[in-house]
């Protein structure tokens, strides 16, 4: 287990045991913030790196403010819950190398833009992002500024000043669809802006990282294949990925982890031009949400829907790798499926799908069966839909 053990009165030891990526590459990680307004881009970048002895590992919860944000999102008092979270998980680290040297490659790496779910932020999907990076992808995990992150921030033009953007619930009396639909639109635009950032870097533009990391973005210049770009996300991020396909022709396909389909307007379904892989958990989806996925799969034979057995909604986040009762009580993070097996199934299905639709010359097609819902831990479509058809 990683360092970051502590004792709490609410259930003993907490630790975060994120697995190392299983692919052939070591994984590096850095934070990138471009622009000094809300319209900028903020993301955590996972990339194949050169191994470096004694490399620092980044904190999983980057700052105390995120503990406050999680407490607020979980409807717990920030006065006791935030310090408790900070003590319990504030020192947990991600097993990747912080600001490690980028690994040059004779052929360029494909790119994945990753969109987080409601009430989370850029670092809470480190397990799946670093797994994909270990197989030779550059993965940009966004932090959205539409008030759907538990909290986020940007650095203003005034030296050293930050402006924080809190999580916002649906205002009382406001239509939830209207509120969420505006958010998903902003989120998809942010995915498009993130892609534009990589296009700028590739065209040789000088891009300033306002966080002044020890990582030179210009090393990415001839290293990313902008003809091989996918968009991916979890929950609210899953539906964000679907909408991003409509907005940006450069995205060739989307991987939607337990997508929350509610915020997408019906008129958009005929507009989704590219294939989507829906990887659902067993306990989250509603018949309405599944019906929306099926509208897409009926229009595109390459769109696939599979369900991972024994999984719950949080199984596709890092929270499922926390051991100890405290977090499970606050977030309900564990299904019956072993978290490492769940990550394997999710990432292998995604890799097989990405190989197919980004024309990769890898051996990810060895996992093609998963896309048809064939395997011990998966079924095609959604379990409760089969009996209702």
What is the rounded Rg? 20 Å
Helical content (DSSP H or I, runs of 4+): 25-40%
CATH topology: Rossmann fold
Number of helices: 10
Distance between the termini: 45 Å
Order of helices and strands: EEEEHHEEHEEEHEHEEHEEHHHEH
Characterise this structure.
α3 crosses α8 (339-358). The protein is an alpha/beta fold and 389 residues long. It is globular and about 55 Å long. The strands form 3 sheets. It has a 10-stranded mixed beta sheet with strand order 5-3-4-7-6-10-11-12-13-15. A 3-stranded antiparallel beta sheet has the order 1-2-14, with helices on one face. The chain has a single domain, classed as Alpha/Beta hydrolase fold, catalytic domain (Rossmann fold), CATH 3.40.50. Helices cover 30% and strands 22% of the residues. The chain has helices at 64-73, 78-89, 126-134, 176-202, 236-247, 287-299, 325-331, 339-358, 368-371, 383-386; strands at residues 6-8, 12-16, 26-34, 41-49, 97-98, 109-115, 138-142, 151-155, 162-166, 224-234, 251-257, 276-281, 304-308, 322-323, 378-380. The protein has 10 helices and 15 strands. The active site is at residues 235, 258, 313. One of its GO terms (biological process) is lipid catabolic process. GO terms for molecular function: 1-alkyl-2-acetylglycerophosphocholine esterase activity.
